[in-house]
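ARCHIVE CARD
CATEGORY: sequence design from structure
SOURCE FIELD: tokenized fold
FIELD CONTENT:
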């Protein structure tokens, strides 16, 4: 279990919003002195650094996140970074769970729907994991194992923000088991905060999304080593992996990253495959 006590005590600096505003002002001043190209590069660098620092702190400290949400500029980043967590342990399992909630989107229906969906999905995962833990414990004892020597199974739930902007939020909720990796699960959320909809690949890439994604994936595979390609199924049809329900997330550059689950396209040692989709090849 990760010890977050140090992060929980982080206090938001009173000057933080002034720093953000100052960076913007500096960019505007630089624009007057050096022209438009410089300001774009300068503002992009400043924004990238600020985003990295803010996302890290917002994920690590709910205290920091709560305070930051009150600031005019950085409050925009709080839409998915507030989480609830709980930890429990008994003689057969331990659970470390950190579950995100989206807030401050201005779309109450979206927040309620997505938060409920996340909670229901995680509840189902935990129930299944706990049942497997019980079965594993009973089998251990039935085959002569000492109950006192049984190693509790670890069940972890966490999340990762992949992309966040005024219009889009993309994140993944993950559930892992220490003893049964085949049951690990991933739930991807790509939200359009303006429309209140969850995005599909068709929404992001257009009506030709299957062809666009497949061609980009095939180009990526063509650049793999012979050893990497040998892990793929012999009869693999890449385009058949793509549908509106195919898992994907948006990366920091706003590109769709298609996620192909373990065993879907290759043998187990290949693990989960990810492909950055380049629409123009």
């Amino acid at each position: 279990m990760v010890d977050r006590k140090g992060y929980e005590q982080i206090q938001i600096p009173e000057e933080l919003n002034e720093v953000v505003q100052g960076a913007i002002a500096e960019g505007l001043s630089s624009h007057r002195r050096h022209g438009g190209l410089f300001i774009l590069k300068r503002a992009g660098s400043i924004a990238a650094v600020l985003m990295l620092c803010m996302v890290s702190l917002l994920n690590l400290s709910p205290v920091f996140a709560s305070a930051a949400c009150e600031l005019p500029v950085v409050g925009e980043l709080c839409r998915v970074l507030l989480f609830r967590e709980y930890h429990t342990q008994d003689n057969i399992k331990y659970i470390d769970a950190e579950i995100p909630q989206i807030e401050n989107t201005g779309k109450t229906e979206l927040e309620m729907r997505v938060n409920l969906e996340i909670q229901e999905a995680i509840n189902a995962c935990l129930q299944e994991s706990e049942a497997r833990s019980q079965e594993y414990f009973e089998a251990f004892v039935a085959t002569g194992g000492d109950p006192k020597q049984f190693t509790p199974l670890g069940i972890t739930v966490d999340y990762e923000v992949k992309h966040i902007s005024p219009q889009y939020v993309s994140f993944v909720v993950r559930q892992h088991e220490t003893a049964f990796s085949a049951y690990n699960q991933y739930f991807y959320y790509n939200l359009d905060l303006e429309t209140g909809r969850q995005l599909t690949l068709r929404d992001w890439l257009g009506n030709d999304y299957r062809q666009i994604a497949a061609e980009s994936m095939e180009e990526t595979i063509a650049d793999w080593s012979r050893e990497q390609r040998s892990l793929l199924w012999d009869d693999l049809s890449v385009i058949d992996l793509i549908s509106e329900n195919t898992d994907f997330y948006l990366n920091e550059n706003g590109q769709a990253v298609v996620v192909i689950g373990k065993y879907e396209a290759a043998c187990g040692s290949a693990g989960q495959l990810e492909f950055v989709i380049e629409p123009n090849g």
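CARD ANNOTATION: The chain has three domains: 5-77, 80-198, 201-276. The CA atoms of residues 6 and 61 lie 9 Å apart.
SHELF: design records, drawer C
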